[in-house]
Design brief:
19% helix, 8-stranded antiparallel β-sheet, alpha+beta, two-stranded antiparallel ribbon
């Protein structure tokens, strides 16, 4: 490529052919890109698992995997970050990993240092998992997304064992230092698994298989197909578990006590609380209307 220098009224300029890769974004094969790909594959497999085992609780089915402690609900409300790492306001989104489950919030466009997401995610909490890993990214258009903040957050014991709804702020780490990058507002609620809700027949459980590539990647799920069983069970095909009661009678678990009208009334009473949060609170209180209202009153204080 030949370059020449010419004199113009505005000064010297370099004239020549532009390189072939001008304004092209190089295809990155870095560990970060591979990790994001593995996260996406993990999320897709977990979504298939959620279809196989529909949610137990308010408005849900009754099948549960046998290796879980219960169902965890996390509302990612907002964050207050220490610094804006962009020429304009950042476009932050949040990624949360609980066990092998990975979820992302929508992008808070121009959220800057105070993004709001109000995103509620629900997942089965495996036995032995007691914390969640939070990452906040600044979404980019022409380059890879920048990781702004992160934190390991212990799931509150009062939520896991006390049945309480915990609404609290947690410190974030980043370039400013450990616990110095700002804070994030999370709402935890937990519904323990009921032995009556655990399926007794053989189930198709996913196997954890490490993705090929660099070490340290998140594991991705691949289905383990068993002869004689379908690879995917639709919720309508799943039979409700039954328990043999006294006298040979079939005992079924009682239905949830909160109806859709009750949930709408709660929304009218607490207009500042998102409906998904209200449903999560109702689920954590096992459909008890009065207990749900008391928990919402505590959150609204």
């Amino acid at each position: 490529m030949s370059l020449t220098t010419k004199q113009t009224p505005r000064g010297q300029v370099v004239v020549g052919d532009l390189p072939a890769d001008f304004l092209r974004v190089p295809q990155s094969s870095s560990l970060s890109s591979q990790q994001q790909y593995n996260d996406e594959m993990t999320a897709r497999m977990l979504q298939a698992q959620q279809v196989t085992y529909p949610a137990a609780g308010v408005g849900g089915g009754m099948h549960l995997p046998t290796n879980v402690k219960g169902r965890l609900s996390v509302s990612i409300a907002q964050a207050k970050l220490a610094k804006n790492y962009s020429i304009t306001k950042m476009d932050p989104y949040c990624r949360i990993r609980i066990g092998h489950a990975v979820f992302e919030t929508p992008t808070a466009s121009s959220g800057g240092k105070t993004p709001r997401w109000n995103k509620t995610v629900q997942c089965y909490l495996p036995n032995g998992v007691t914390n969640a890993y939070i990452e906040i990214f600044d979404e980019k258009t022409f380059t890879g997304d920048d990781r702004v903040a992160w934190a390991y957050i212990d799931i509150p014991d009062v939520a896991l064992n006390g049945g309480e709804v915990v609404d609290d702020w947690y410190k974030l780490s980043g370039k400013q230092g450990d616990g110095q990058e700002g804070m994030i507002n999370l709402i935890f609620s937990f519904t323990p698994s009921d032995p009556m809700q655990v399926a007794q027949q053989p189930a198709v459980m996913p196997q954890v298989v490490m993705m090929p590539g660099a070490p340290g990647m998140y594991p991705a799920y691949q289905p383990a197909f068993q002869p004689g069983y379908p690879a995917m069970v639709q919720p309508a095909m799943v039979q409700q578990p039954v328990v043999q009661g006294q006298g040979g009678q079939v005992a079924r678990p009682p239905p949830p006590r909160m109806s859709e009208d009750d949930l709408n009334q709660c929304k009218d009473m607490f207009p500042n609380i998102d409906m998904e949060v209200i449903k999560s609170v109702a689920e954590s209180q096992r459909g008890n209307r009065d207990a749900t209202i008391n928990a919402l009153l505590t959150m609204n204080d």
